[in-house]
Structures are given as structure tokens and as C-alpha cells.
């Protein structure tokens, strides 16, 4: 049996369980772990355990937020992870033996090596060196590849029945100073990036536009099938535009204080799917009241 887990953040003070740290879960960790099991280890693993259904205290729950919590309400309430549960359904189908076509070389799962070496050997070797030597965050990630800086990740070619968007991100900058948090900053806070992470399942080739700033609202479509090109773009903030191949692909974009997570998927200059976090449910706050390195997850 192997396990996959999407996230880790816990924030208990000394008077409680005295657990206050994060693990780096950026770079679409949940997706990469699933695909590692499916594409590389599927003959070695019979059962996959998802960690977890309702461990709210460590922020890796994928079930609904209900019932008693272990005093984790400050960083859990309002941070739904149900979209991760939906995301898992795609990988469950791929993992089950009746959906597998044998070794990767004989199936329709073809990993395109878009900077994979950075996400495995070089990336994790550098991360271990930083943790051991207590280097600063800026020095540690200086050598990331241009692929990641441009917001593109790994891509898998596969059959997809429906266009889907998944997006998640944290609610404040990692360098932010909380106004009233007696527990203090979690250990490892410098390991994460102020970006939101996007996974797209596309039936056919398409294009994606990602942005964060709330003051750059475009004449975007509110319904599928509306022209996209009026949107391209009067904005001065950071935005990311990429081609999307058929299958599964991953992207990221910088989070902007006061903004949210916005993703538009288009095909032939027509919006076919879009996700926009509302300010009521998610805002990237410049000055948070308390530290919260949990993720908010949405989908469309």
C-alpha cells in the first residue's frame, strides 16, 4: 500500500500540541504523487491510501468540513478541499487495474519531460540542502528552471471526457506578518511560493489564461461560449497565458495581494470553462490577522 497526500500545515502553540510547521506542497504535489503511482509504480502498488479524509489539524483533509475539530477552526473553516476529492476521481479511474493498459510504453499515458529533472532530482536535492543549512528562501530557489518560472508544469496525454479546471492557493504572502497570532510563524514558512496552482483536464487542445489581481477585471465571459479576446488584456498585473494540450496539464501564476484565483480555458477563441474565486470565499490578504498556510481549493 502507498499513500498520497495533498497538503500539510499545522498551527498549534506550546500550550496545545506544540506543532507549528509546513511542508512544501507546491508544484502540484498531489498530482505528481498520483501520477508517480500510476505511471511508474503501478505494478508495485496494489492499494492507494489518501491522507486524509478529515485530519483538519494537519490540513490534508479532502472530505467535507463538519463535526468536531481538534481546535483547528482558525485555519480550516472556510477552506474547502472538496475539489481535491473530485480531482482524485480522475486518478482513481486510472489507477484501477481495469482502466490500466499495462506498462506506460503500451498505454496512452505519455509523460512529456517538461523540466521534470527540476521537480525531482535537482529540486529536492536543493531543498534538502536548504533545510540542513538553514539557507534563505531566495538563495535556495535561485536556480529553478525557466519552465517553472513561466508557470508551466508537467503534462500527461490521456483521454478526457470533460474539460475541467482545478485551482488552489494560500490566503496570504509567505512573508506577511500576522497582526494577532500568539503561535507565531510556522517553521518552514520560507519553503513555499506565493503562487496558485492549476490543473486542467482538456478534451482537445486549448488555451488558458491565469491571473490574480482583482483590479484587472476584464470583459470576461460569465457563461460558456462567449468570445474571449476582449480580455487579452488591458491589465498591468501578472498574468499567464499558455497553450493547453489534450489531456492533463499543470500551470501556476503569481498571487497578488487583494486578488484571487482566475482561470479561463478557451478553444478557438471561445471560453469553454472558467473558474473565478469570489472575494467572499478567497482573497490573498496582504496583512492577515493570523497565519494560515492552508490551501483553498476550487474547481469548474
Automatic annotation (TrEMBL):
Recorded GO MF terms:
glucan endo-1,3-alpha-glucosidase activity
| Highest taxon in the source lineage | Eukaryota
The Basic residues compositionally biased stretches are 135-149, 231-241
Chain segments carrying region Disordered:
121-152, 212-241
Q: Is Disulfide bond among this UniProt entry's keywords?
A: no
Hydrolase listed as a keyword: yes
Q: Record's InterPro entries?
A: Glyco_hydro_71 (IPR005197)
Keywords for this entry?
Answer: Hydrolase
Query: Which residue stretches does the UniProt record annotate as biased composition, category Low complexity?
Result: 121-134
Q: What is this protein called?
A: Glycoside hydrolase family 71
Originating organism? Pyrrhoderma noxium
The record lists the lineage as: Eukaryota, Fungi, Dikarya, Basidiomycota, Agaricomycotina
Amino acid at each position: 500500500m502507498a499513500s498520497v497526500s495533498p497538503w500539510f500545515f499545522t498551527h498549534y502553540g506550546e500550550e496545545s500540541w506544540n506543532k507549528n510547521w509546513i511542508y512544501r506542497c507546491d508544484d502540484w504535489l498531489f498530482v505528481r504523487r498520483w501520477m508517480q503511482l500510476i505511471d511508474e509504480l503501478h505494478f508495485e502498488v496494489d492499494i492507494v491510501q489518501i491522507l486524509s479524509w478529515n485530519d483538519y489539524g494537519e490540513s490534508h483533509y479532502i472530505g467535507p468540513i463538519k463535526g468536531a475539530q481538534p481546535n483547528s477552526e482558525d485555519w480550516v473553516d472556510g477552506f474547502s478541499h472538496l475539489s481535491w476529492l473530485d480531482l482524485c476521481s480522475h486518478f482513481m479511474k486510472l489507477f484501477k487495474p481495469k482502466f490500466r493498459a499495462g506498462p506506460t510504453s503500451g498505454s496512452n499515458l505519455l509523460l512529456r519531460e517538461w523540466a521534470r529533472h527540476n521537480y525531482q532530482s535537482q529540486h529536492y536535492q536543493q531543498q534538502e540542502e536548504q533545510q540542513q543549512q538553514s539557507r534563505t528562501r531566495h538563495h535556495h530557489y535561485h536556480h529553478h528552471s525557466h519552465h517553472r518560472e513561466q508557470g508551466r508544469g508537467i503534462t500527461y496525454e490521456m483521454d478526457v471526457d470533460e474539460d475541467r479546471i482545478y485551482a488552489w492557493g494560500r490566503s496570504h504572502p509567505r512573508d506577511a506578518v500576522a497582526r494577532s497570532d500568539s503561535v507565531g510563524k510556522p517553521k518552514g514558512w520560507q519553503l513555499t511560493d506565493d503562487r496558485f496552482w492549476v490543473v486542467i483536464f482538456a478534451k482537445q487542445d486549448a488555451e488558458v489564461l491565469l491571473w490574480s489581481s482583482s483590479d484587472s477585471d476584464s470583459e470576461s465571459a460569465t457563461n460558456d461560449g462567449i468570445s474571449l479576446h476582449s480580455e487579452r488584456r488591458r491589465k498591468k498585473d501578472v498574468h499567464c497565458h499558455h497553450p493547453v494540450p489534450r489531456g492533463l496539464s499543470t500551470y501556476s501564476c503569481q498571487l497578488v495581494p487583494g486578488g484571487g484565483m482566475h482561470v479561463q480555458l478557451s478553444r478557438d477563441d471561445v471560453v469553454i470553462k472558467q473558474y473565478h474565486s469570489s472575494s467572499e470565499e478567497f482573497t490573498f490578504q496582504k496583512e492577515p490577522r493570523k497565519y494560515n498556510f492552508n490551501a483553498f481549493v476550487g474547481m469548474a
